[in-house]
Specification:
Blueprint: E1 7-9, E2 11-12, E3 15-16, E4 22-27, H1 30-37, H2 46-49, E5 59-63, H3 69-91, H4 99-118, H5 120-133, H6 150-160, H7 172-183, H8 197-205, H9 210-244, H10 270-280, H11 287-297, H12 308-318, H13 325-328, H14 334-346, H15 356-375, H16 406-416, H17 425-432, H18 439-443, E6 450-453, E7 456-461, E8 483-486, H19 489-493, H20 496-505, E9 518-520, E10 525-527, H21 530-543, H22 554-565, H23 570-577, H24 593-600
Antiparallel strand pairs: 1-4, 2-3, 4-5, 6-7, 7-8, 9-10
């Protein structure tokens, strides 16, 4: 073992397991462990040095994937080098490496990976095979190929990469990755289209300061493309060797392909289509149908590869999905749940399938996903809709929303309380929504929109800042939406005013720095509820129920119901929450804030405490 420093076998009961793979290994110095434990939670270096228990790791371990010590030592060397760089950086006071150093590491990574893929190390391995076949040593060995070591190498290649395609043609997934890495040249944010871009960057180059990372992403995209292209040549070479000798086997996973499908630039996957649709049109009603499409057809299947036969198979599958599948089969996919429900029914269990209306809704949403993909402006996701006309008529009506019960409010705010000290919208926005406001109205607030009239704080909901200048990022639904809205006493008691002072002391322009707007190209305006509604609705799902009738907008419905039970005048209710008044009434302004606040305080939320 001494000749192969830095690697160790998998251990069991303190002893190395003979024949197991080797692990790259580096002991973490005591001073580095102390520095690592002092790193803030947001520092990406914690992922390397800190274990799941929150304590610093005594040693770093990573599998090499090899049982041969020479191969393992070769693989372990760059891993250990990366670790040592991280240790050095931490010892230098945690100062992030500069752009120049990061670029050097990218160049070195590209050189090493391309050289390995192009066969410099493979050639040596092939000569080793041939040396065993022919007495006399490697010096007399002919060129490696089918007759000398090539097939053995190709088999070893696919053994170590069981998920790699054995076809001689370029897989659609590789085609898409190369296409998107190419597209990174066309815009500073195009790297976001590459799944797992930053994770891959940090895995290969190491943890970086965010500013450094932003500066080197394009260089990494170029290097990654070169590496992927070289690795694809290596894979196809291995596939061709096996095909020549008739040993090629079919790929482990065969995706459903529409007749005549061929990869092309800009191709997107089903998973990306569903994610994009739900980002553009967030709806709890679409969650279950989207999950069914994702799990049955496959998230990595190209959208244009889904044909009419696939859509018909999906329709036959939908009618087999058990009702309340998530509740009765929480650990199973929908496909597995459908199979298990059939077994349970055969054994006499009661596992009814989806109602015809629900099944039709699944098909309607599948068709809507593809229609949106065809009509979406930036990318032509699909050429045609394979689900068109397959949905039965008489879809389910849109879900009737309901308000929160007292116990459900307690559950939600107990769950969201973890974000209170983080100055996050995830707590403070729902707290402000207790005055019946719309989600977008609260998310777009500026720090100078929190004002005071004779000791009564309120929210100035409108289109202008404190200086009277139009804020182009603000929108209102109706003229009645522009108002002076009081703040519920529960939010004030929770420390909302102190939160505002902290934001103002930090010279923050927006009240909620982590609430990001979405640019609605169709309406040409900013949408402040687009992303936040998804996050808060997910919190409701996790804390209370995934009932689509209960969403963050339910707070607004519940406000009117509770205000009416408290005998608040209808005109006052409308003024507080920004509803259009059904009859001509007085217009309440900031001078009326004390009156409005007094009425809002009468709106009771049970035993809720924030």
């Amino acid at each position: 073992m001494a000749a192969f420093k830095g690697i160790t076998r998998v251990r069991r009961n303190g002893r190395e397991v003979e024949g197991s793979v080797y692990l790259a290994r580096l002991t973490v110095p005591v001073d580095v462990r102390r520095m690592a434990e002092a790193l803030p939670d947001a520092d990406p270096r914690r992922a390397l040095f800190i274990g799941p228990n929150g304590k610093a790791k005594v040693e770093l371990l990573e599998t090499t994937g090899h049982v041969d010590p020479r191969d393992a030592a070769r693989v372990a060397e760059p891993i250990i080098t990366r670790w040592k760089v991280a240790v050095t950086g931490l010892r230098q006071g945690g100062t992030p490496e500069g752009v120049a150093a990061a670029l050097d590491r990218i160049d070195q990574w590209q050189t090493d990976e391309v050289a390995r893929a192009q066969g410099f190390e493979v050639e040596a391995a092939l000569h080793e095979y041939s040396a065993r076949l022919r007495p006399g040593g490697a010096a007399d060995t002919p060129a490696p190929g089918v007759e000398v070591g090539g097939v053995a190498w190709a088999n070893a290649y696919f053994t170590s990469r069981p998920d790699a395609s054995r076809e001689a043609e370029m897989p659609a997934s590789v085609f898409r990755l190369l296409d998107r890495l190419d597209a990174c040249e066309n815009g500073s944010e195009r790297w976001r289209d590459v799944e797992g871009f930053d994770a891959h960057l940090e895995r290969e180059i190491g943890a970086l300061d965010p500013k450094v990372k932003a500066s080197i992403r394009l260089a990494f995209a170029r290097a990654w493309r070169a590496v992927v292209a070289a690795q694809e040549v290596e894979r196809r070479h291995a596939a061709m060797l096996l095909k020549i000798v008739g040993e090629a086997r079919s790929a482990a996973v065969t995706l459903p392909h529409a007749a005549g499908y061929e990869p092309r630039r800009g191709d997107r996957t089903v998973g990306e289509l569903l994610d994009a649709y739900q980002a553009a049109k967030p709806s709890k009603d679409a969650v279950a149908p989207a999950r069914a499409v994702r799990e049955f057809i496959g998230a990595k299947t190209p959208v244009r590869a889904v044909g009419r036969d696939d859509a018909r198979r999906f329709k036959n599958f939908v009618v087999r999905i058990p009702a309340n599948a998530t509740k009765f089969y929480p650990k199973l996919s929908m496909v597995e749940a459908a199979d298990r429900a059939e077994v349970d029914r055969a054994a006499g269990g009661r596992r009814p399938v989806l109602s015809p209306t629900s099944a039709a809704r699944y098909m309607t949403y599948a068709s809507m996903f593809w229609n949106w993909g065809i009509e979406e402006g930036e990318h032509l996701w699909a050429d045609e809709n394979p689900f068109k006309g397959l949905a039965e008529k008489g879809d389910a009506a849109s879900t009737q929303r309901r308000s929160f019960k007292d116990a459900e409010l307690v559950q939600v705010f107990n769950y969201l309380g973890r974000f209170k000290n983080e100055n996050s919208y995830k707590f403070w926005v729902p707290a402000l929504l207790l005055n019946g406001a719309r989600l977008s109205e609260i998310c777009q607030l500026r720090t100078d929109d929190v004002r005071d009239f004779e000791g009564t704080p309120y929210l100035d909901i409108g289109l202008f800042d404190a200086a009277g200048c139009r804020d182009e990022m603000k929108t209102v639904k109706t003229p009645e939406s522009i108002r002076a809205a009081p703040i519920h006493p529960l939010a004030i008691k929770a420390g909302f005013i102190d939160f505002v002072k902290r934001r103002q002391a930090a010279d923050a322009e927006r009240l909620f720095g982590d609430a990001k707007p979405y640019w609605n190209k169709k309406d040409k305006e900013w949408d402040w509820s687009h992303y936040q509604s998804r996050v808060l609705n997910k919190a409701i799902d996790d804390a209370v129920t995934d009932d689509p009738a209960l969403v963050i907008h339910s707070l607004r419905h519940g406000f009117r119901e509770r205000a009416e039970r408290a005998d608040v005048a209808p005109a006052v209710i409308d003024s507080i929450a920004g509803w259009a008044q059904k009859s001509v009434g007085r217009k309440y302004g900031d001078r009326d804030v004390p009156l409005l606040a007094k009425n809002l305080a009468r709106v009771d939320y049970g035993g809720l405490k924030l």
